[in-house]
Each structure stands twice: as C-alpha cells, then as structure tokens.
Design a protein that fits this description.
With 248 residues, the chain is α/β, with parallel strands linked by helices. The strands form three sheets. Strands 1, 4, 5, 6, 7 and 13 form a six-stranded mixed β-sheet that branches. A hairpin with a 2-residue loop joins strand 2 and strand 3. Helix 1 packs across helix 8 and helix 1 runs antiparallel to helix 9. It is globular. It starts with 14 loop residues before the first strand and ends in a 10-residue tail after the last helix.
C-alpha cells in the first residue's frame, strides 16, 4: 500500500468485479472498454486503496443474479428501493438521478403537464425490463410495453409506436443525440418539466461476495475523499453533465 493513500484496509483485495448495463453517459461501452461517469468514479474511489476494478456489462436482470450469487461485488448504477434492500446492501449515494418522461412534440405541441402517474393512463409508455418503476407502473395499471433497453424506446418514440418513455434526462438526451444527430430530428423530442422522482444512484452490493462489508466501507470512505477534492467534479464535468447531478 502506498504511503500517500488516505486510508488503509486490513484485508487483501487486489481486484473487484462490478457489473452493470450500458447506460450512457453513466456507463459507456467503448469498443469493449467500460467507460462513463459511473465507472470512472468507481475506479477513482478504489484507486485510493490500490484496488483494481474489473467491469462486465450484461442485462439488468443478470446483474442482480450475479451479485445475489456473490459472483460480483456490486452492480451499477442502481436506485435504492425497499424490495432491493431486502436482498442487497447499498453504498452511499454516488450521483443524482432525475428521471423524466420524453415524448414527441408533434404528439403534444403544447407540451405535457402531469400531476400524478394516473395522468398517463390513456397513453402507451415504453419501459425497460428490470427498471425501478415496474412495480409502480403495474400498481397504477398503466399501459407499458417493456423492452431490453432505453435505446429501443427512443427509437419507438421516434416511430410513434409509444407516447412516452421514462428515462434519466441526461441519458435520454444522450441517446437522442446518438440515434438522431440531425438538428431537425433532435428538435422532434421534448421532455416533461416535472421529474418522476428525485433520487440518487448507488452501488447495489452483494451480501455474499468475499469482504463485501469491508469493501462497502472502503468505497464510502473513498467516495468522500474524491468528493472533497477535484476528482469527482472533474469526472462529471468531463461528461458534460450538469452540476445538479453532483453530490457533496
């Protein structure tokens, strides 16, 4: 362990495995190398302890299976929910999350204001299997068509096959820009002013992975270190995310 490191750990860990789904700009698959704001934060945190991080991308349901079986230390990025907390532990909040409903301006030329989720009952919503809202949408009896990822829903929205899709605002605009880079195409999309919720992403941590409790404590300590120096802010700014996403 290098002398200048802020903290010391009393267990031997050279590498941890973390799983996640592609979720630009939080998690980006760059020709096999996992990048994005969240992996960079995680790498910076564990560098405080000279621990290497290996990332593996997979569907969200498989991520949960991996950490439930102790095959990976944690899955990213995940929201804390009561049902998940019954099975997994969570790190301290890492970065803010502002999910909003995207729609086509052509369908709602005067915009769309909503007060409760029941306002969406007359419409078709594009959802992603394994996301936090599945139970709530079912409870509200909304008409939801589930697919494997947000990219599919953005395409379906453009094709007028769904009316709305709920997605973090930064992720939504990132995908719109990636899939429809021409200005007239980008201008076809709009987003509700009101967020569905205001939350934060965490590491969702395995309870059976070796040294998981100690690794969780180390991560939380290291996160505070990079939040108090320039590292955390530099990572978020590098991915051109609003300062509203920063946690201190």
């Amino acid at each position: 362990m290098l002398a200048f490191k802020m903290f010391y750990i009393n267990f031997a860990v050279a590498e941890v495995l973390i799983v996640g789904g592609e979720y630009n700009p939080y998690i980006i698959n760059n020709s096999g190398r996992v990048e994005g704001v969240f992996p960079e934060i995680v790498r910076a945190v564990f560098q405080e302890f000279d621990i290497d991080v290996k990332f593996s991308l997979m569907p969200w349901k498989r991520c949960e299976k991996f950490i439930r079986e102790g095959r990976a230390f944690a899955a990213i990025p995940y929201l804390h929910t009561e049902s998940r907390a019954e099975l997994f532990d969570f790190s301290d909040p890492v970065i803010s999350f502002y999910p909003k409903f995207f729609y086509k301006k052509q369908a709602f030329p005067n915009g769309f204001e909503w007060n409760s989720l029941t306002d969406f009952k007359p419409y078709i919503i594009g959802g992603v299997t394994g996301y936090w809202y599945e139970g709530t949408f079912q409870e509200k009896e909304l008409d939801v068509q589930y697919v494997a990822n947000d990219k599919i829903n953005i395409k379906k929205l453009m094709q007028n096959r769904i009316d709305f899709t709920l997605i973090d605002e930064s992720v939504g605009w990132y995908l719109v820009n990636e899939l429809f880079p021409f200005q007239d195409q980008m201008d076809a999309f709009a987003v509700t002013k009101k967020a569905e919720s205001s939350d934060a992403f965490h590491l969702m941590i395995s309870r059976t992975y070796q040294n998981s409790k100690e690794l969780k404590q180390a991560f939380n300590k290291g996160l505070k270190v990079i939040q108090n120096n320039a590292t955390y802010h530099e990572i978020i700014q590098r991915y051109k995310m609003s300062q509203d996403y920063m946690l201190h």
